[in-house]
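[Discussion] Sanity-checking designs against the backbone

I'm trying to build intuition for which residues belong where. Below is a C-alpha cell string of 401 positions. I'd appreciate it if someone posts a full sequence so I can compare it with mine line by line.
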C-alpha cells in the first residue's frame, strides 16, 4: 500500500484528508499525528470558556473510519526519504507514499534567558491543560510576549481572577498582526481589566516566583508562560533536503521542491505572484491551503489565492482582519453601533479591512469586505466611511461595473 500520506494531524492535515475523499480520491490515506488525541482545533484553547480547557475535536474517530482515513496518533515521522518515497516512524515502521503532504505546523519559540526552562509553552491541548492545572494553585502569572496568543491568555486568566502581567519587548502589544488603531483599543481594554504591562523591556532571568527584567524590575509570577511566537516545523523537510526558508517553500500550487510532496498550513511558505514566499499562522489559512493541496494531490492544478483572514477574541471583544493592512495604506474608518470598521486602500484600491466589536458583531461586514477586496474595487472613501451606505450595495454596483 502506498497512496497518500499526511504528516501532521492538525487543522491542515485533517482537513486535507477529508478533502481528498470529497474530491473523489479513493486510494489509501494515512494521517500521522505526533499528538495522542483525536485531531482538535487550537483556537478554543485560548478563548473564554467555562473555566476549563476546551477540547474541540475537528472530527470524530467514526468520521475518520467512515471516510476510510487511517489515523495513526502518537506517531512521529522521524525521517523522510525523498528519492525512495518513504517515511520512517519513531517506532521504526517504514511507510511508502505516492504523494505526501507535510502539514507539520509550528512549534513555540524558546526563550534564551536564565531560568527559561521554568516557562511553560502554549501550543497544544496538553500545554493548555498544564497551564490551567498549575494556575489553579497560583495567584500570579507572567506572560512573556504580548502577541495574539499572549493577550488572549491574559484575558482568559484575568477572567479567573489571577494577577496577570504581560512582558513585551516591543513598545506596544499586538504590534505584529493587528492594525495599530485596534491594537491600541485592545491594549486599553486589558489595562481597564487590570492587566499589568511591562513594555519595551526584556527578561534577564526567571526565578522561583519572580521574573527579573533587563531594566531591573521584578515581576511577581508563580507561573510563567512563554508566548513569544512560533517557528515553522521544518526539521523533517530540511533533513530530507527540500527547499526551505521561513517555512517549507512551495510554488503557488503548494508543491514543494519535490513534485510528489506538498505542504500546507503554518509550516508552508508559499510563492507569491508579486515575488517571494509568504507564510501565515492562522486557522483559516491552514484549512484553505489544505483544501487546495488536497485537490492538487488528487490531480487538479489550483493556485492558492485566498485572502488572508484571522480573528481573535479577548474579553467580550472580537477582532477580525481580512487582507494585510500596512502602515502606508490609506485607512478609512466607519463607526458601527458597537464597534468600528477600518478599510485599507492601496493607491485607491481596497486591499484590506479590519473590524472590532462586541462578540461576533463585525463578522458580516468583514465577510462583505472580503468580497469587495476580491472584486478589486476602488471605492469612494466617503462611501466606505458612511455607515448608512450598505456594503452589499457597494458590492452589487462593483460587480455590475
Ligand atoms: P498545527 O495545528 O500545529 O498541526 C500540526 C501537527 O503536526 C501537530 O499536531 C504536530 O504535533 C504534528 N507534527 C509535527 N511534526 C510531526 C512529525 N514529524 N510527525 C508527526 N506529526 C507531526 N488562528 C486564528 O486564525 N485565530 C485564532 O483565534 C487562533 N487562536 C489560536 C490559539 C492558540 C492557543 C494557538 C496555539 C493557535 C491559534 N491560532 C489561531 C492559530 C491556528 O490554530 C493555527 O494557525 C493552525 O492550527 C495551524 O494548523 P496546522 O495544521 O498548520 O498546524
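Best answer:
Here's mine. Compare freely.
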Amino acid at each position: 500500500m502506498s497512496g497518500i500520506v499526511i504528516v501532521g494531524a492538525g487543522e491542515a492535515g485533517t482537513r486535507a484528508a477529508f478533502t481528498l475523499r470529497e474530491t473523489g480520491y479513493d486510494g489509501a490515506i494515512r494521517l500521522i499525528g505526533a499528538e495522542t488525541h483525536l485531531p482538535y482545533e487550537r483556537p478554543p484553547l485560548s478563548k473564554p470558556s467555562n473555566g476549563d480547557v476546551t477540547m474541540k475535536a475537528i472530527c470524530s474517530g467514526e468520521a475518520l473510519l467512515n471516510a476510510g482515513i487511517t489515523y495513526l496518533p502518537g506517531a512521529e515521522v522521524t525521517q523522510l526519504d525523498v528519492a525512495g518515497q518513504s517515511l520512517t516512524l519513531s517506532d521504526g515502521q517504514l511507510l511508502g507514499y505516492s504523494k505526501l503532504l507535510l502539514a507539520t505546523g509550528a512549534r513555540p519559540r524558546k526563550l534564551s534567558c536564565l531560568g527559561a526552562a521554568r516557562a511553560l509553552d502554549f501550543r497544544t491541548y496538553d500545554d493548555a491543560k498544564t497551564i490551567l492545572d498549575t494556575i489553579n494553585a497560583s495567584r500570579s502569572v507572567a506572560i512573556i510576549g504580548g502577541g495574539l496568543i499572549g493577550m488572549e491568555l491574559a484575558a482568559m486568566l484575568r477572567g479567573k481572577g489571577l494577577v496577570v502581567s504581560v512582558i513585551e519587548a516591543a513598545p506596544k502589544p499586538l504590534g505584529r498582526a493587528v492594525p495599530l488603531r485596534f491594537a491600541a483599543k485592545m491594549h486599553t481594554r486589558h489595562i481597564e481589566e487590570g492587566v499589568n504591562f511591562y513594555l519595551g523591556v526584556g527578561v534577564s532571568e526567571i526565578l522561583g516566583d519572580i521574573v527579573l527584567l533587563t531594566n531591573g524590575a521584578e515581576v511577581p509570577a508563580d507561573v510563567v508562560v512563554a508566548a513569544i511566537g512560533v517557528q515553522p516545523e521544518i526539521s523533517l523537510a530540511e533533513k530530507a533536503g527540500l527547499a526551505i526558508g521561513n517555512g517549507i517553500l512551495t510554488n503557488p500550487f503548494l508543491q514543494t521542491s519535490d513534485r510528489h510532496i506538498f505542504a500546507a498550513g503554518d509550516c508552508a511558505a508559499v510563492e507569491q505572484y508579486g515575488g517571494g514566499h509568504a507564510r501565515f499562522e492562522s486557522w483559516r489559512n491552514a484549512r484553505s491551503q489544505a483544501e487546495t493541496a488536497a485537490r492538487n494531490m488528487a490531480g487538479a492544478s489550483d493556485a492558492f489565492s485566498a485572502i488572508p483572514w484571522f480573528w481573535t477574541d479577548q474579553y467580550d471583544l472580537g477582532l477580525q482582519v481580512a487582507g494585510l493592512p500596512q502602515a502606508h495604506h490609506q485607512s478609512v474608518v466607519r463607526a458601527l453601533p458597537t464597534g468600528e470598521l477600518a478599510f485599507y486602500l492601496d493607491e485607491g484600491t481596497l486591499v484590506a479591512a479590519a473590524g472590532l466589536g462586541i462578540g461576533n458583531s463585525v463578522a458580516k461586514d468583514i465577510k462583505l469586505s472580503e468580497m469587495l477586496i476580491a472584486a478589486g474595487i476602488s471605492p469612494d472613501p466617503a462611501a466606505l466611511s458612511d455607515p448608512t451606505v450598505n456594503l452589499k450595495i457597494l458590492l452589487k454596483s462593483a460587480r455590475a461595473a
